Amino acid sequence: MPKKLVIKVTAGADSPERCSQAFTVAAVAVASGVEVSLWLTGESAWFALPDRAAAFELPHSAPLPDLVETVRAGGLITLCTQCAARRGIGEQDVLEGVRIAGAQVFVQEIMADGVQALVY
User: Would you say which domain of life the source belongs to (predicted)?
Assistant: First the structure.
């Protein structure tokens, strides 16, 4: 049975290496044919907005906009409901295809058979 990978990224520009690792793993998994669900929480919530990834820089890492686009094209990106609300982000603000959902949906995803969950 193929596995699904659920990745929760809590870091943004405040912890660039951890943030980049999460997006890199998600994009590589998508490119490898793995079903991927990427959850944006905490400071990574800002990357659900258009053009926010373009401002992120980390030497010797893939450009964050490219990683985001890879995941959007072949996986699912979810923005945490509470994280969005705390930052004043609404459904009309996010990148096309990004959904806003809460803990109940996250728990459903990670508890399903054949799922591997990672938190960065």
Answer: Bacteria
